[in-house]
Protein: Two-component system, NarL family, captular synthesis response regulator RcsB
Organism: Dyella marensis
Amino acid sequence: MTLSMYRGPALARKSPRNPIRVALLDDHEFILKGLVSHLRQVSAVTVVGSHRCSRTLRAMLAETPVDIVLLDYSLASDDLDGMALIKALRLRYPELRILVVSGHCQHVTVNMLLREGANGFFAKHQEAVEMAEAITRVMAGETYLPPFLTAVTPARRSSPLSPREWEVIRCFLDGMSVSQIAAKFNRSLKTISTQKSTAYKKLGIQSDAELFKMRDQVLQARSMA
């Protein structure tokens, strides 16, 4: 599944009197309803749309002005890969703020999200009252990270891995199995296993345990766009 290029209305210049227009994307209905319920109690924001798939979010962005999107990059298996979605949104809507809201808090993953164009990361286990601050800081041009992730910084060195090898490593760090990764990207089990093995050789590691122990160092191999 690929993301076609699309254009939406230009973002209107904000004034202190205008609430921040927020769109939400999460494939879990319970989480989505909780976010909507909480944000409706925050006077500084207005929820202009909530979505369970990227297709409806993209359709709304093409028609409705939005200031910030709160999204979980780990979407349903039949939806877009979250990294690809963030990258495409950043290219199409350079002024749009993107705050990732996820339970996957690995340093490597968060760094890659920032690398692809996210403006911040909010962990799902954080207190709900902290979300207003996160939105405000992102809208002010800051990169928001929870305290336990403040050591995350963008990668600076070239990556020895190919884009597809990075996809496999990132998904594996998120807890996905070889078969799940193969299904997500419509590749064979053999292809995924080979890409994982090749990535391990390039990174100089021999086991899954080594990968998880050096997840922060692995990030240094991520290429800059």
